[in-house]
Amino acid sequence: MFDWTQDPHRRYNPLTREWVLVSPHRTQRPWQGQMEETAAALQPAFDPECYLCPGNARAGGVRNPAYTSTFVFDNDFAALRPGTPCEEFDLNGILLARSEPGLCRVVCFAPQHNLTMANMDPAGLRSVVDTWVEQFQELGARPEINYVQIFENRGAMMGASNPHPHCQIWSSHSLPNEIAKEQESLLAWREARGTCLLCDYAGVERSGAERVVEENEGFLTVVPFWAVWPFETMVISKRHVTAIDQLTGAERDQLADILKRTTARYDRVFNVSFPYSMGFHQRPTDGAAHEEHHLHLHFYPPLLRSATVRKFLVGFEMLGMPQRDITPEAAAARLRSV
Questions:
Q1: Is residue 29 in a domain?
Q2: Is residue 3 part of a domain?
Q3: Catalytic position from the list 9, 113, 164, 166
Q4: Cα–Cα–Cα angle for 250, 256, 262, nearest 5°?
Q5: Domain span holding position 65
Q6: What is d(CA 90, CA 105) in angstroms, rounded to the nearest whole number?
Q7: 9: in domain
């Protein structure tokens, strides 16, 4: 048996049915070498120039209300628009395009400009969770919407144009690529084995605990066995629920709790407000039960060795397959240690 702490090897991602190359011999410990800590600029509780703060005008000219909790609005510069006619262009199966109706919204987590999930209070985060549920139900009920993607880009390094605590919701007519791949894999697993892939996977991780970072009654945060990004994590519902709307009141509290604890750990790794892209993966909203789906979230943070050194997917990774030097086990140990 090869030694996966030392020998190069590939790991299989059963959700996407793709492989990642792991090269642990290139660097044994993710925190060795130069450490550069950058102090984040202190943000005020209210920024008169911020287009997401209460009472301020947005870029499109609309003025925000004086909101006191979460605030949701249609994205002024949306990637998808409702009312787009459903049509197709097909030239010999080579040039193929289909119109894509949809609706994009922005969710401000709180009126305070200087908050993040890591430093919000539990009640405030529970309000965010409730808002996510409401938006999933409302947007998913629209006949032209078949998928609701809730995601947050945190930090300028991940393309966030504004530090105010917020996320986006893009609801689309067709399934996004990553969801379509996961659905195919989840369905194939269920048909072949009669069980849920992520229920089985959560059981494996809990029994070994080598890659477990956080856990509460309702959720588990792990560095996936097949992780690509250095400190990538996945938050998995312990109970088999297909989407966020099936969570009980207690489970909504537990989701808020594990998100706060997970993001707080991130901030302590390099003593910086950790950048990441985070998003929910859950059942489509096409009216089918989709029992093969299992509610989970992905965190993709780019930082590698310090607050200013990031991982890029370049060269072999763009042309061949993803690759990582730090093993998922070492990354999980690092996260647990802070």
A1: no
A2: no
A3: 166
A4: 130
A5: 42-337
A6: 31
A7: no
Q: Which residues are CB-neighbours of 208 under 8 A, at least 6 positions away?
A: none
Residue 117 C-beta-side C-alpha neighbours within 13 Å: 28
> What CATH number did the domain enclosing 280 receive?
3.30.428.10
Residue 125 token pair: 């985060």
Does residue 5 sit within a domain?
no
- Do the Cβ atoms of 56 and 64 come closer than 8 Å? yes
Predicted structure pTM score: 0.95
Tokens of 266: 């991130």
* 25 catalytic per annotation: no
Residue-wise pLDDT tens for the chain (338 aa)? 788 888 899 999 999 999 999 998 876 544 444 455 555 567 899 999 999 999 999 988 899 999 999 999 999 999 999 999 989 999 999 999 999 999 999 999 999 999 999 999 999 999 999 999 999 999 999 999 999 999 999 998 898 889 999 999 999 999 999 999 999 999 999 999 999 999 999 999 999 989 999 999 999 999 999 999 999 999 999 999 999 999 999 999 999 999 999 999 999 999 999 999 999 999 999 999 999 999 999 999 999 888 888 888 899 999 999 999 999 999 999 999 99
Residue type, 222: V
Split into its structural domains, the chain has a count of 1
